[in-house]
Amino acid sequence: TFSKIFCFITLASGLKDNILLMQAASHHPDSAPLVLSPAIKLFLASSCDILESDVDTYWKALRNIIWHGDGGTSSVDIMKAANMDNIWLPAPCILFLPHHTCQTCDCPAHHNFLFLTIMMHAKCHTNYHHGFSVKAGVQTFYPGIPDILQVGGHQFVETKDIHLWHTMTLISWY
Q: Which residue in 72, 79, 104, 131 could disulfide with 124, CB within 3.0 to 4.6 Å?
């Protein structure tokens, strides 16, 4: 039905980074993968009320629309969809890097290798983190303000919560 197709497109669009996570490092992030991991298949089948065996058919027919489309749903919406029916999620929240390839201009593998989470790139010796990179002892922050900031070793806070705390502090002074 149309609602199942819409559900599949919407949820799969929001899971692009999760889908890329299971691909080879040489896979280009602008190219839609040919196959999905078993965890993603199970999640989409359960969420969209389709057979797990049909997920491959849906993916084959819709993968380019999903991959190159503008939208998708947020991880919060995906969690809501999963929690409505007690559906198993691959992970409730994964902090991916804001880019998928090496950003160092002088790197021999510049824009060639796929990575999504914190890592040390062996070719250019750049250590990539959620909000910044470190090369030769120099820490460089990514442009813009991210939605989630690292405030400690393993502590992350959403930017909207920081704004709320700041507002509450200002209000409490009066």
A: 104
The pLDDT tens digits of the residues spanning 93-126 come to 666 666 666 666 666 555 555 554 556 666 777 7
Task: Determine the Cα–Cα distance for residues 107 and 131; give it in Å rounded to an integer.
Answer: 20
Report residue 78 as tokens: 């995906």
Distance of CA 37 to the CA centre of its chain: 15
Residues 6+ apart with CB under 8 A from 157: 148, 149, 151
> Rounded CA gap, 44 and 10, in Å?
10
- Give the SS3 label for residue 164: helix
pLDDT of residue 54: 93
CA distances from 42 to 26, 34, 50, 66 (A): 25, 16, 10, 18
Instruction: Return the SS3 of 158.
Output: strand
Q: Torsion-angle region of residue 136: left (phi > 0), alpha (psi -120 to 50) or beta?
A: left
Rounded to whole angstroms, how far apart are CA atoms 162 and 112? 35
| Residue 23 in tokens | 């691909």
* Assigned token pair, 131: 């909000």
